[in-house]
## 1
Amino acid sequence: MFKKQVTFVIAILLVTSLLMAACQPAAPTTPAEVPATEAPVVTEAPVEPTVAPSTRVGGWLDEVVFSVVDADSVITQLQAGAIDMYANGLSSKDLPAIKEAGLAYSTNNGLYYNILYNPATFADGRLNPFTNRKIREATNWMYDRNYLNQEIYEGGALAKWFTIQTQGPDYVDLIDVARSLETKYAYNLEKANEVITAEMEGMGAELVDGKWAFEGEPIVLTFIIRTDSDKTRLPIGEYVAAQFEAIGFTVDRQLKTGSEASPIWIGSVPEEGQWHLYTAAWGSSIIDRDEANMFQEMYLNSSQQGIPAWYSNVSDPEFQELGDKLYAATYKDLAERKEWMKRALELSLEDSLQVWLIDGKGFIPYLDNVVATADLAAGVESGQIGPYTLRFDGQEGGTMRWATQDLFAEPYNPLGGSNWTFDHGVYGMTMSNDLMYDPYTGLTWPLMIERAEVTVLDGLAVGTTHDWVTLDFVPEITVPTNAWVDWDATTQTFITAETMYPDGLTTKRKTVVYYPEDLYEKVKWHDGSNFSYADVLMSMIMAFDRAKPESAIYDESYVPLFDSFMLSFRGWNVVSTDPLVVEIYSEAVLTDAELLAFGVWPWYNLGEGSWHTFAIANLVEAAGEAAYTIDKAEPAGIEQISYIGGPTLDLLAAKLETATAESHIPFAPTMGDILTAEEAATRYANLKAFKDEHNHYWLGTGPYVLDKVFLTEKTAVVKHYADYPYLADRWGNFGVPFIAEVELDGPGQVTVGEEAAYDVFVTFKGEPYNADYVKYVKVMLYDATGATVLVKEAEFVEEGLYKVTLTAEETGKLEAGANKLEVAVVPLVVNQPTFAAVEFVTQ
Amino acid sequence: MTSELSEKEVPKVESATSSSIKRIARFMGFRVIMLIVTIVIGVYATILIANMGGYVDTIMRNNIRETTIMEVAQLTANKAIAPEARQKMVQDMIDLEEKRLGLDTPFVIRSFNYLWNGLRLELGRAQYMVSDSGSRTVRLILLERLPATLLLMGSSQLILFFVSVFLALMLSRSYGSFWDKLVIALSPTSAAPPWFYGIFFILIFAAILKVLPFGGMVDSPPPDTTIGYALNVLKHLILPASSLIVAALFFSIYNWRTFFLIYSSEDYVEMAKAKGLNARDIERRYILRPTLPTIITNFALLLIGLWTGATITETVFLWPGLGRTIFRAIGYYDTAVIVGSTIIYAYLLAFTVFLLDFVYALVDPRVKVGGGNN
């Protein structure tokens, strides 16, 4: 009897403990309290931004070992010391756990979320409230974005009102307008209800027992709420539905996955009325420096999105015209562009085909001793700078255990290989390019080039920030007659401007790129081959040849990209091969000259490539044995070329043998002028030796060499590249972003008509903020109604201190009551403003 | 007289043999036809279900449009491009992708192509999924994952099966003992799925004790030597295999023990006990033998069940097995992979069912292939 009882008790205890363990929330995910006013920071890495000078070249680490880890176990694994960082990033829901675990982290752009309305008039006569722009506009007051940020995103995201990136370059440029509009459209359910009620009644609807009805029938809003993705769209949808119900609407919540939802919101005709609202989300992994196109794309029926809801939107004619003009960049200068952008921001909120709610963030956790630079948009994994600054604090060398979501999702080749962010993490370690994207501003710095000169036509809205690139304006730019403007795939020679445009050719922009004099001596591919002009020439040829039906490596899927390239391309003129100086002629013009300074580095679609690896891969594709892109491989029933494994390794090896035996020179009619058989033989021998050592063909010139790959085991090892030409500390100042810390101090009471002064203290890690890094300190004054009374700039006093003086005339505009003074410190070196505000009473 | 009798008896024997062969042939033929029909229906039903009767085409078309729009937005960000050029680029890319995925051919035609190719074991190429080595060949996608699945599922399920049967047989002989009651009491623990135990084990052995890895099949990077690699794989196998075993062990023992108990209490077993036969003989001759068809059926189905993998447990432990592959294929609506996996399972199942009919006849004299008049 006793045994029976003991057995029973043990069993009950065991089962209960298992169930309790299963039911209780995991300790690391306990939400931490986040103050409502806390602004998200870009990084909390406890290290200084600069590094001590070093003689080490290339990357700081000896080795980086990539592995795949389940996102749910990341924090536990970091705490257990099993990995050093999780580069793929976690979502906002994990932020409290990251903080609680005491881990360092960086942030990057996540998805951005909004409500998309169906603006069509329904064919069956049902009333669709969202045909009415004023109702759509009023819904901005219905949504408490800060509440959503705190409740759903743990305070780790940003409230969003505009289609442009919150705190992105355009937002910062328009900060006073943006903040004023954010104040104007702050949460106010009563106001929303008031406006919507008036408009609904105007449309013939009536409230029956507290519910809106039209012609005796209840108005039921069909709301498509996504349940998948990162799962935050479900609570957003529930919140939005509840808000609509609170003002008398009946909401039919249709919970659907992406694949279930897209046939409805994309696939159906809006006039059929299958839906009213949709929880949309968009993504951007770059710091977009020119978002003037976004108004047309995200609101207007002239949008190129190709989604039916856009075509049904009837916008205000002024907005329609302005959005189209901004897309076409027809402004005469940057000042006019700014004015147009200001007005477009206002009109976009009045249109509100989409109401923006949240700019999401991703969080990249790592151990305290890790220094990782995260691009504000792309993070660590896709950010170009990551490999150059990744290190252990205060240490040279060591092995970094880099965990990510997956690896080798698709074959690796620089033309049409894997485009997954986790695979970019591996690629990035091994690659160089002409320019380095600034992780905090989206501008560029010279990486492999020395300098650049940009010349554009008079009147074009282009500016420059850095002094490594010059910018000139001229009345006309003529393409030289000997410039290469196209490629003849039959004769395998370039077509010159003289042949193609006998009457001459002019264009909008000319960029001259100067490479270092010792480029060919100091830059080496990972197989030991010296970088040469042949690598550059090969990439120029490949840019054309694959789009030509006569070519042996013609690829139909490349044609759309090529066509868009040719629309703006006007020619290359190689002024000198050693040192390498190249002129680029183009119709493409952007607002920043730094982004127009790319040269002719052998960078293909996804990465750089040497001429000799492409030579053998071209032989494979030309023989019809495998293809670079899946679009070409699939219909032919052949494999996609992978440089790192799988069945195509043998094909590449066979072609390498052939190429070696024949001293093969690709595109010989052109490449033969600069390549000898001996040089080709040396390259192929180097590649063979590299393959024998590493068992793959993935070559780069970057700071790390891809040493080993284990495809099924999902792991890779990259090793320090000792022949990299530049010092490891070259990008040391990008350790962490210089995000200003701001305090605003001054009187709490101001007499109307009398002067008042406030001090603005700007610091970075407790030290005065370098004044050279500050673009401006903007001052905004709001009255008791929230209306903007004043916008101006603060005066510089000394480093770290600025002064705001409200003159007697300015305070005279205020009425008695509570007012708010806000300052926005906008740095030059990081695209993230810092805000501070103080409230004062006027009497 | 004797010779006359013999002469008369020989044709009877020949006639009986001939009749048996005919009966077996008829049975086999009928069975094979039925199995083929079942396979055809089953596989075509899978194709229809996996494609939602063709509705997946609509889903895919809209997904292509959505992803292409975003892809082009990324490609053209920070680049000056005319609206018309961009629109053309979007449409051209959509057209190419639809063509690549075969959406330019009606679903009905594609569905019969899938079926015909599948029945001939021409598994073809995946639409979205890629093998670990970068190939889209369905055969490679499945084969590359097969060793890992066989290792995990094989080791865990075989251990589970033999341990369960062995212990159940023991318990059936000691009905009502402490161990018997303990197993009964613990059998509800199988209500929790293997992945639950997996998470529990990871917390204990990887996070807290740090003696076993969190997941994966091998360390990153893997050891250089073959022996080191093998030992390392075994180390990684412990937790996932244990979670699969522990989750099912007590219920499995309980199940088999109940099954054996029925046979243990038969009159002929009681008679054998009364006659004083030793326990081992009773177990082997009087309990195990009549239960052999059931045991063999379970074992055979277990073996072909290895093919399906353990989806969630493989996911929890990041074990590169077939279960995860098939799960992903379903998520991607990758019909070629789904059909490839289904057709192989269907053939294995059909072959096993076919074979079992003969095995039953071999191990149990009461069973006659094809039935017959008696």
## 2
Amino acid sequence: MNDSRDRLRKWVLIVVMHLAAVLVWQAWITFGKVEPYIMPAPLDTFATLLEFKTYRWGHNTLITAASVFGGFWLAVVVGVILAVLFSWSRWLNEALMPLIVSLNMIPKVALGPIFIVWFSYGLGPNILIAFSICFLPILITTTRGLNEVEPELIDLVRTLRASRWQVFTKIQLPGALPYIFSGMKVAVVLAVAGAIVGEFIASEEGLGYLMMQVQVSLDTAGMFMAVLMITAVGVTLYAIVLLLERLLVVRDARME
Amino acid sequence: MSIARREAEVEPFIRLQGVRKIYRGRREDFLAVSDVTFDVEMGELVSMVGPSGCGKTTVLKILAGLHSHEEGTVRIGNQSDRFDAARDIGMVFQQPLLLKWRRVIDNVLLPAEILGLPMAEARERAGHLLEMVGLSGFAQSYPYELSGGMQQRAAIARALVHDPKLVLMDEPFGALDALTREKMNLELLRIWGESGKTIVFVTHGIQEAVFLGSRVVVLTAGPARMADNFLVNLPYPRGLDLKTQEAFGDYTRRIYKLLGME
């Protein structure tokens, strides 16, 4: 009873705060007399949605979503698999981890032009850029989660002659889930950034590419709308991650 | 034939003789345990008491097969009670160590899953055990919904689910507040009475050791060695009023003296 009222309050607050932000935006334009090419009004921004022939919102958003989601889920799969291998082989961990940390220092944006040479323009290189920028946090949090098992719990299952696989599936992996999700939440933001940067430099479609196109004609409203759509893609992915977390991780174990 | 059998019958369930364990350090070696010699009869509740560093946890881990030892012999099981090291040990630690993502019943079932026991039977048994430890209404709860004492009850049920012959407890009530601890002592005696298990109970509580144990093994630190091993001739069932009796005081004084606290 109290729980559902709390939840309703939370949702109302979310909607109200977002609407309030739009109102502040509108008020600023109205009372601050800002030139529309510097800062468009919310209504002018939303109006660009109607000109879908010029902007191709549906297509461009789908393309961007594809590189964000593609890069993100690839990072989740590769990050978790690598972390599992690292937790099984200390040698592999010690050999590869320093290299991965060094590779992570490469500014991923700088890879854009190289990826164009290698893979030409398009979705593929963008997914790779998004992936390369967001997989390390998942690898690191998962590795930590897999190793975070109380030694006495290991003693307990050792007296039962538990196999390595049993320890992994019954204790390590479920225990690491909250860590995996905390890594995923960081990775969502990075994946969006990676995909957009990729579209700035190595793409002929997508919201990032659209922004570069309309910037030339000082179409600030179009650029704003593109930013909003990019944000919406990120928020959607974040919501999916939160939903999965809610389904898979017991409340007590969740890391806020 | 009949003489041989009688001799076999008097063989205790557990026999430790001159057990010695040294931890090899990088700079110097550390004597963890020495001169540990005692027997445990089937169905006994043996308290092992001593200050930190006396090696009581080490002895427990040697019994559990988790540690090796340098000298002496450790034998568990006899002709009438065979001992299978994989199936016949239940363990309870100071922390409940319940898996946060599993409901209480599924936590209790963990050993049965690992051992590959028939699950329908194990589930029924787990239900009975939860009833025995006073958690029958909490089978579907998650650990975080339980108090510390209740979590430790669940841990005890988990230690019993595969019907082990030997239960090893390492300061199981050490993290609980004083009142809950007294209550859990009474509960443990009841559970021990109902289950008939052989229990080795490690504690640094002198009163707790005497109150629970049918036998007390006293270990001292610096150097780590066994100082005493005696039967506690106080009848079960034991209640809290036992602690006011003179005989109880004699036993605790005997231990205090050994630990140089008199």
